[in-house]
Amino acid sequence: MRVDIISIFPEYFAPLDLSLIGKARSTGLLSVDVHDLRTWTSDVHRTVDDTPYGGGPGMVMRPEPWGQALDAVGPGTLVVPSPVGKPFTQADAYELAAVDHLIFACGRYEGIDQRVIDDAAARMPVREISLGDYVLFGGEVAVIVIMEAVTRLLPGVLGNASSLDEESHSAGLLEAPVYTKPASWRDREVPDVLRSGDHGRIARWRRTQSLLRTAARRPDMMASYPPELLDKSDRAA
Ligand code: SAM
């Protein structure tokens, strides 16, 4: 997968050299180029913002540098992090992981002039994505979040790809609690069943915990879980 990120703060993306994203880059599964939007300015102050038409507080990102930047790195699938975008989900992460070339446009100030998004949409797929119902300073952190969620879905990135099948949000449920050694810690014991070696009982226990957790913490998820996927033991849980 090829990724281009455009931002006025390229330094924000140093973490993309670390851990499994860094490894995916060094093994060639992923290429990431971070671009400074100011490369595409032409004035001595390298200006990227101006006052909003219609008045109001703050500044808006000017269209010219963005237009040139997207012409230079595009076309691809353009992802614009924005609080007015569609809330990001694991399903979106899977869709983005299937794309060959992602371009991320990081807004700052009051956001990017709307014509940039409209103009890009005439040439390439555009997805405005929100991380949640709150407002960040800029799109950089949102891009790192989206990159983490997407990169771990790329074939070959995770050592054990089967972890993807059982984790939270993969099949509409939250994952069961997890434990490791020691078996007893501060008088707290690992549930016996997990030490039983009985794979059938362990699977049943995990499934029950997963259902109970989802029902308690995310009734919205439980309500949209397909009833035909519930068996007799699930209903008893
Ligand atoms: N004036 C905008 C509004 O009220 O919708 C908020 C602009 S915000 C201060 C600056 C930038 O941060 C946005 O252009 C976007 O790139 C990013 N951003 C802020 N909140 C976000 C969120 N919840 N999800 C994704 N990106 C966000």
Automatic annotation (TrEMBL):
Principal location: cytoplasm
Top EC class for this record: transferase
Keywords attached to this entry: Cytoplasm, Methyltransferase, S-adenosyl-L-methionine, Transferase, tRNA processing
Entry's localization field: Cytoplasm
Superkingdom of origin organism: Bacteria
Ranges of residues in domain tRNA methyltransferase TRMD/TRM10-type: 1-222
Catalysed reactions, as listed in the record: guanosine(37) in tRNA + S-adenosyl-L-methionine = N(1)-methylguanosine(37) in tRNA + S-adenosyl-L-homocysteine + H(+)
UniProt entry tagged with the keyword tRNA processing: yes
Protein EC: 2.1.1.228
Binding positions for S-adenosyl-L-methionine per the UniProt entry: 107, 131-136
Quaternary structure (record): Homodimer.
NCBIfam families listed in its UniProt record: PRK00026.1 (NF000648), trmD (TIGR00088)
Family that this chain belongs to: Belongs to the RNA methyltransferase TrmD family.
HAMAP family with a match to the protein in the record: TrmD
Task performed by this protein: Specifically methylates guanosine-37 in various tRNAs.
The protein, known as: tRNA (guanine-N(1)-)-methyltransferase
